[in-house]
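Researcher: We're teaching a course module on how sequence relates to structure. For the next exercise, students receive a sequence and then see the predicted structure as tokens, so they can try to spot secondary structure elements on their own. Here is the exercise chain.
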Amino acid sequence: MVWLTSIRQSPACVALLTQVLSFAAILLLILVFPERKLSLFQWAMLQGALAALMSYRCRMATWWTVIHLLFMPTLTATLALSIPPFWFCIGFLLLALIYGKTYQTQVPLYLSSQEVTTVLSSWLPKQNNFSFIDLGCGCGGLLKNLSQVQSNGSYYGIEAAPLPYLVSKLRNIVFAPNNTIKWGDFWKDDLTQYDVVYAYLSPVPMKSLWEKARQEMQPGSIFISNSFIIPDVTPEKSVKLNDFSGSTLYMWRI
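Model: And here is the predicted structure for the students to work with:
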């Protein structure tokens, strides 16, 4: 079934289903064994353990197992604090503005370090004009920095999360007004016009992104990934960085 395949391909959907099933199992236990006088928090801990076990059996990423283990006990403890509901609404909206459709894309918000600017500037053309795009440009710091050290480039960024896009847009208007920041889905953007494509995403989209790059980018153009490799494709060059995330830059020439 198509809907079942879609659920399996989305960790967020699998996580939600795991929580629903584990909650239903605990509810059933409460109804079948009403004499078990456990506190609400104890039932929540039992539900968390069951959800974590289900997550492990589904071979989800380790951090999902930790989230399942702590979610219901933390929720129960938080409710005991009698925090007004609107604060939870504000928190949810803030997370949605910052991370956008991370639950769907499986690409969190990563920020490129100053050392990335230094290494990238050594890879970019020194004489000829070139075009550079940052796929998922976040808050736009990399584009601003590069445009200040490599003025022969035309710099573009595309970001789907509302708040990082707004920060990036304003940041580049003030400090790098020639840069172009777009709000949207980079999968819908044509890479033909760019000489250098940079991505700092996650392991999930790399194979598909490489196929897109090979189909659209011009021969001789450069694809660069921060931290995440393309499966089964050896990079032409790689540099280990001494930055806060211990990242590595990988470069492939089309």
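Model: If you want an answer key for the exercise: The two ends are 38 Å apart (CA to CA). Strands lie at 130-135, 153-159, 180-183, 196-199, 222-226, 237-240, 248-253.
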